[in-house]
DNA sequence: GTCTGCGAGGTTTTT
DNA sequence: CCTCGCAGAC
């Protein structure tokens, strides 16, 4: 998306008046339809009118979608540039383009309207920017810029930053934008109850954006919706142009996106939305599951097609996932099925603490890759560990580093969100558009030039009072000696540098060379070279990477847009490594072998989700569980730990309530290692190191106390999974403890059982206070094995 | 204007 | 425990 919109706009004008000659050439062979099942075929061939495709996990959704596009083009119902295909992520857009290309050949080169909501919005907005008071070369702000801008406003309004953190206000505004609420439209109840003068600040923020000629991510959509609503002539042209609209991951759309789609589909009404209400996991970011639940109301006469045949997972895995998701109330309901062989049950295991969980999973992974588990070796890149929260990753990284297991963390800070990249980008931004005040402010004192808060405030004041850009204000201040001599000298030099770089950029100087020169001459590279911290080298490496990436673009301008909207960090895809990522990041992916650690109440489901959103939050967490399980093709292992170090304090937790929802018939409960001695031999072949460890501890496991405890544990196994609908507590699950029993816990010491609930005990510890503990993690006080 | 010490807070994050 | 942001000290 490097400034080519003008050409496309012209093509748009020209093409519109041409007859649809391609349409005459219908009735070509349709080899791409071969191999689709009946429902997929319906999803592909039901072309006219609104269609909702409810596609469960692993049911060939992307295939149906891409084939549908191919079909539209091949049958001549639409030219490639008359099809609007929308995704959420760049990755999904790329993949779709790639796969459609594979089906219909090079024609997709001419599919300019396949992209993310945001990138398509930019394309539209650049053409009509003046209608919302922007110039077509507006810049796009990311979250960081947004917050900094908000901070400026908060300061200008003399609002207490402690009570109204800019961060919070920015996310409040984000939320309003997600719901397509402009400042005037925010319900007064929210505006005042939530944030002191909320809408007022929102309006001020929008005003600032306009003067900066900038948009935040939310604006991209909202401005387009606004243009469509206020300029029927513009809307009319787009409506007529897009004969067919396709939307991926419809369950993740927010109100703004919904309006965007509904407006565009208003004429032809050929809109096909694909999604899965059970996989809606972005509610906290403004996604409205209701959009998919209401589809038939919004688009009367809609056809609903269900894809329920799963091509990914074994029956045990599907049944377990279905059992969990069945506990949700607000869902459209699907029944996934498959006819592949049964495969292995899910495995469930409880651990003493998070470290042991990581150790055990590490050993399991080695067993899988070596082929001692399952029939043949599973390559490391076929294995994934999916966690609820990023902080869970550390235990695995630590462990894998010590045993030398290659892994990669997916997600984490994006390339362009890193400090050094953002700084470099800010330099480029000012060089290209000297008016970019936010960028200028970011780097005016990076590296340190002795231009601190005071200087920056002064520049801002001059800029505001004279209605000029920050760079011009800086120029004036330096010339008029409006600051200390030292500051004036530095500022003058910086302004002169930018003048020079700007001139070079305009002259079309080789932009890669220019970028290098900017980083060099500004002293930015030098700054990191001088820095001794361990990550400085990595940062320099990233800068090199950035400059290298520039080479693929025609000019800096094009690159800047790419980075702000599209760039993501794809890394060594080829390498054989275990993946560690969040459940959110795993959506849309699949792995032969999946580990789901940390299934403890409070962590997963997350306490915060439940506190903030109640039942709705819990249901979203449950969908997350569903997403997690359905990533697995053949092996899925769920685990929990009784104790976890959180901020270096020991906390105990109960197994996740989702574990109780796993249908018992599809789950194999493993005996945890370490606890009862010998558990290992039964559960999995232990690597040498572990056997050695065990041997060293052998005498402990031989004590009478352990033997007694072990015998009791076997009659009352780990947190018994039950049938989801079986609400009665299984008699065998009743623990051997009673209220009043004196018990011992390895971490918390002695205590007295206060209450017994199934296999969970409420215990008052002498030192550690009261805790909820699973019965098998404590021993009767007289059974202590030493 | 930059450095140090103290207190608060510490989910998920497509664009 | 570790990181960030701020207030006060240089």
Give the arrangement of secondary structure elements.
Layout: H1 5-17, H2 21-24, H3 38-45, E1 51-55, H4 61-74, E2 83-87, H5 90-104, E3 114-116, H6 117-128, E4 139-141, H7 143-156, H8 166-178, H9 188-194, H10 198-212, E5 214-216, H11 217-230, H12 232-241, E6 244-247, H13 255-264, E7 271-275, H14 289-293, H15 295-298, E8 303-307, H16 315-325, E9 346-353, H17 354-370, E10 383-387, H18 393-403, E11 407-409, H19 419-432, H20 437-443, H21 453-466, H22 470-479, H23 485-506, H24 511-521, H25 524-530, H26 536-550, H27 556-565, E12 578-582, H28 583-586, E13 591-596, H29 607-630, E14 632-646, E15 649-652, H30 657-660, E16 667-669, H31 679-683, H32 688-701, H33 704-715, E17 742-745, E18 749-757, E19 760-765, E20 769-774, E21 778-780
Parallel strand pairs: 1-7, 1-8, 2-3, 2-6, 4-5, 6-7, 9-14, 9-16, 10-12, 10-13, 11-12, 13-14
Antiparallel strand pairs: 14-15, 17-18, 17-21, 18-19, 19-20
Helix pairs in contact: 3-4, 4-5, 6-11, 7-8, 7-10, 11-12, 11-13, 16-29, 17-18, 19-20, 21-22, 22-23, 23-24
The structure holds a DNA duplex (15 and 10 nucleotides).
